[in-house]
Amino acid sequence: MKGLKRDESGWRLQITPPGEKRVRLRLGDMPAENAGAIAVHVHKILAARASGAPLPLDTADWLGRLPEGLHERLAAQGVLDEFMARPVTMTLGEFCDLYFQRPDDRAWRTVNQLKIARGNLLAHFRPARPLRSITEGEAKDFRKWLSLPRGEAKKTWQTSTANRICGRVKEMFAYAKSRQFIDRNPFESVSGLTVRANPDTQFVVDRDLTRRILDAMPDEMWRAMFALARIGGLRCPSETRALRWEHIRWSEGRIDVPCIKTRRHVGRAVRTIPLWQELQQVLEALKAKSTVNSVWVIQEYRAERSNPAVQFRRLLERASIPLYPKLMQNLRFSRAQELIDGGYPEHVVQAWIGHSAAVAKEHYRAVTEEHFHRAIGGAQASARPAAGHGWVNSGSAEGQKDHQGLTNPKRRFQAEPTITRGKQSSS
Question: Which of 3, 114, 185, 280 could bond 173 through an S-S bridge, CB–CB 3.0 to 4.6 Å?
Fold first, then answer.
């Protein structure tokens, strides 16, 4: 390094900046790499002062960790002037506190997922770790660490969960970069974080099972909540909870659904879906039981953090109905699958269900048993369901022209549907 020499008393650094007095700095006896590092940063400081450019982030971080004595000696030699404040190194814990103090219009579930990511991040790197010191290699090691057994039970995250956590951390560090707390995001180099659909959880709630569940619901409120998710394709509970009676345009045959999850994106705060005739019958029955001044379609489970899936599970168990993997999400999945199979264009289904093309392709498409039967002529296509199958006809583009309406809601079905993950039982 230019200006760095060693004599009998140790290392010394001499630099003569253009137009300024010579810098003489005794470093003493230390390893060559340490003396070299000091020389590099002193050269960067002098270059930044000469050009008026800001200090490189690694040098600013180095200054923030300097012992007080060396900092004073640099100031005495004119390397640091009175306008160059001593930088403060932001720790990982301080950044996380700052990140969650900012205004955030995302749903509480999203924020909660970010807090889970924060907990894992701090557990791995520790709160006192300098934010800028985390390297790309350590970021990759963090993703591997998420897959290791943890706790007394030695449980491990599923691959999709670990990817989601690491993706949230990547999002947090992107914010740090945008605020210029760091000059590069070490998690940008961590690839393969896309959350892939799990075939084991892609379950189609078919026509027979849908009737049985409607039958098992104890009142009009529960039938409406189930029908809004299964027939309307609403997210439950966020969208079913936000639905008001004023959102239902009875005369026009439409429902304006408040999209809680995507409302912060331009043009995605509300989506309009058809008021399917079978859904209309369920909602009319609930409306008849509601008070005159009622505002919300679903009066119960109003608290933001309440989870109707817990009681829904109990209702299914009480009715001896086999449980499927994702009690609420599989309802939307089933409707999306049904509408596509029914002949509606994909862009129409995406608009009605409320997801992007990428999400639809990854998470709302599956090869079902009915597809195989249809291919070999063993079952009727869902676009033209057999007569007598009731409400599912409106899931097809041509079914709107056929007979519509629910079958007798009190009717009990004797046949047990085949509950196979990732497959739909044939009708």
Answer: 185
Each residue of 191-248: pLDDT tens digit? 888 766 677 778 889 889 999 999 999 999 999 999 999 999 999 998 999 999 999 9
> How many other CB atoms are found less than 10 A from the CB of residue 63?
21
Contact, 230 vs 391, CB < 8 A?
Answer: no
Burial 71-110 (b: 16+ CB within 10 A, else e): bebbeebebbeeebeebeebbbbbbbeebeeeeeeebeee
269-307 pLDDT tens trace = 899 999 999 999 999 999 999 988 899 999 998 887 788
In 126-237, alpha helices (H)? 136-146, 159-178, 207-216, 220-230
**Structure tokens that stand for 297 in this block:** 């379609």
User: Which structure tokens are listed for 370?
Assistant: 């009915």
Contact 195, 167 (CB under 8 A): yes
Q: Identify whether the C-beta of residue 315 lies closer than 8 Å to the C-beta of residue 216.
A: yes
Residues 6 or more apart whose CB falls under 8 angstroms from that of 113 comprise 164, 168
Q: Residue 258: beta bridge partners? A: 270
DSSP alpha helix (H) spans, 231-356: 238-242, 277-289, 308-318, 329-341, 346-353
CA separation, residue 426 to residues 209, 267, 419 (Å)? 11, 39, 11
Residues with Cβ within 8 Å of 398's Cβ and at least 6 positions away in sequence, in order, are 342, 343, 383, 384
In the block, which residue shows the tokens 């004595």?
69
Helix (H) or strand (E) holding 220: helix 220-230
Question: Model pTM?
Answer: 0.56
- The sign of the torsion formed by the CA atoms of 391, 394, 400, 401 equals negative
d(CA 44, CA 38): 10
